[in-house]
Amino acid sequence: MTTNDLPKVAEMVSHYRVLGRLGAGGMGEVYLAEDVTLGRKVALKFLPPKTKADELAQQRLIAEAQAAAALDHPNICAIYEVGRHAERGFIVMQYVDGEPLSLRIARGLPLVEALSIAVQMADALTEAHGRGIIHRDLKPQNIMVNARGLAKLLDFGLATPPPHALSQELSEAETQEVPARHGKVVGTPAYMSPEQARGRAQDARSDLFSLGVVLYEMVTGARPFSGSTSTETMEAILTHAPAALSRAGLTVPYELQRIVSKALAKDPDDRYQTARDLLIDLRGLRQDLASGSGDSRAPLVLQGPAVAVLPFADMSLEKDQEYLCEGMAEEVITALAQVKGLRVACRRSAFRFKGGGHDLREVGAKLNVTGVVEGSVRRSGNQLRISAQLINVADGFHVWSERYDREMQDVFLIQDEISRAIAHALKVKLADEEPLVKRPTDDLEAYHLYLKGRHHWNKRVPSAIRTALEYFQQALRRDDKYALAHSGIADCYIVPGYYGSAPPSQVMPLGKQAALKALELDETLAAAYAPLAMVTALHEFDWLGAERHFQRALELDPAFAIAYTWYALFDLVPQGRLLEARAAARKALQIDPLNSTVTTVLGATLYYERRYEDAVDELSKSIELDPSFPVAYYYRGRAFMALGRHTEAQAALERAGEVMGQSATVMGALAHCLAASGRRAAALAMREKLEALAASAYAPPYAMAQAHLGLGDLDRAWDCLEQAYQERSALLAFVKVDPLVDPLRPRREFDELLRKMNLLD
Length: 761
Prior knowledge:
- This protein is α+β, with helices and mostly antiparallel strands.
- The chain folds into five domains: 3-94, Phosphorylase Kinase, domain 1; 98-296, Orthogonal Bundle (Transferase(Phosphotransferase), domain 1); 306-425, ABC-type transport auxiliary lipoprotein component (Rossmann fold), CATH 3.40.50.10610; 469-558, Tetratricopeptide repeat domain (Serine Threonine Protein Phosphatase 5, Tetratricopeptide repeat, Alpha Horseshoe); 662-761, no CATH class.
- Helices cover 50% and strands 13% of the residues.
- The protein has 29 helices and 17 strands.
- It has a six-stranded antiparallel beta sheet, covered by helices on one side. Strands 12, 13, 14, 15, 16 and 17 form a six-stranded mixed beta sheet that branches.
- Strand 15 (371-380) and strand 16 form a beta hairpin.
- Helix 9 (322-337) packs across helix 13, helix 17 runs parallel beside helix 19 (561-572) and helix 18 runs antiparallel to helix 19.
């Protein structure tokens, strides 16, 4: 075949007039043409000359067209038809009047523009993956961007098409067939996922890795993995951790580093599991930048050192010092968080790596830290042996290590010494010689009781919270001026009040009393302002007062992730300030990215925004982080209900009930779900079960209202809301935004209820 077989300018190819040549690549020649029938410009893509006689290549061309033609999305180049000219097959494609993303990267991209393009590509992949199509060659050369910033994904030449289409292995310019550890692979080495580089089976998560590479390159101007040959580049993909986005002094939001690190995880199970998951996070970050909520990201830039303190290992013979090991690590986290210029991973995220044996580079990537602190505790009677070391995650070398053989009464001094040594090792300047770790009590037994209380509190299930309360009370019997123990008691009373496992009129005032006592003893205790804000919002319906308390907590401790989540869900959401709530939830996620409570609150906020699909996706992440967290299942069930996916809703709610135990709130939602799915008899039976529970134990009226609403008994549902107001039920706080109460909104009394709750605009 010769070049004479190619069309010439002004030549007619079917009903297309050729206007000029656009370019060439591994998949063939591309021409600009005019569709004389419809009067529009198109692109004609011909197979390269060497494949003229290759019937399989012709079939592959058709397969590409079939794969792409199945996709109807504004960010995917449309395929119009397939034809033949002079024995050569061609595809008629949408003409994109723009330039390849690679050229824009070469000139430099503003962060907002890079995020916009990434959002568009994640949206395009969501559509493609939803139809079973994997691109397999996503790179800047395959992304066209027009003058208005609209990005189009091109060339499904390597796409894995739906089962009815034939797979093929050809693509554009940089695409290569290169050796792999398991045979040969086809694609562009710098953008391959590890599994693609190994020649192994790929799924949609492989495309997400490639998009992570593209996003990294858009932000930094350089690829995260490189080598002088294709083999070296692929080896880097398999073995090297990419440099942080803060390379060359670049300042970026912490959330962006988290997103990129997750997308570039070596193990597909550690990556985003769907393009929609990635899309949600990218949209959230883009919205933060566009809305000017930069203050929520300002302290979290990738500058200077960042460390994670992992739970210390219990080396005691009896293996009964877990609470002390966790307490030691938590005290060091708290101390280091006070050091200006040092970023410290939050407890819940860092403690996910409990148990040792983790790849430190993985820990560094997931927590976005440069160093990891590990340690061990051996206690024998009153003697302590504590070892600690700071390890550089990039190379695994010890930056600092020390062993302390002391008596138990020196525990606070040891914690302070460890914290100071770490700060010095990281070359962070300490403001003064004041202790980083303050002695909260002179009674060591009270201290141990408090640590045991926090150990159980952190399990966040009703039985463990009751045990925690007992330990906090014992600590106060030994030292009634122990402010942290009072704050712990406040937490233990308020959470059951919210969950509806205890009458709010009994527990909420006790929680407020404990919080105020803690603040009387230590007015700088952020941990006490948060439960005080909870009571003020959920029991007193004083939303502005609650906001002041939350803001004070965050002023004292800007890295207090749980305060952000409580502020979002229990103060901003009830008022209908949903965008602000989502921003606060995302700020918590920036601080504590692996905390299931944080991701659950973000999912719940999306639910109240009525973004049900996004809520399901976010809550699924929460369940992946902690399969035993009941609130995530509860809100996931409600989101499924709103989508009409009643079987999945029932399964999620039943799982919430299994984890939480006999929960009236879950039972009310289940009754509503059963009724909505047409299973009225089962719904009535569930309501009867709920009524029986209410006769012997406390059941929130709001939970009963859910059951009545599902069964269409609006009068009884309204009576329950009135009762909930009289009791100051915490769940009633969501009445302004809760989709389940929509049938009651037309009532004249509804606005009066909102007025009494200070929720009427």
